[in-house]
Predict the structure of ATP synthase epsilon chain.
Amino acid sequence: MAQLEVDLVAADGKVWSGAARLVSAPAADGDIGILAGHTPILSVLRPGSVRVEPAGGGATLSWRVDGGFLSVDDDQVTVVVDAATADPGRAGH
């Protein structure tokens, strides 16, 4: 099954990097879900939660973000935010 390569980066450094099955994020005009094969996109993010379902299974990872942007190109997802904190009750690091 195809997968995404994801980099989540905050102003103070890399937050998470790895392979994922799904990424969802709070785009400016509504939540967006990214699966492998998604068309290229550049989107502004509003405050909310970025969630990643790892490719190998396991618990969904979740971080609260204050805003930033998300870029998708050739199954490479880059999320750049000012700050990211693990959502309570979720493994975020």
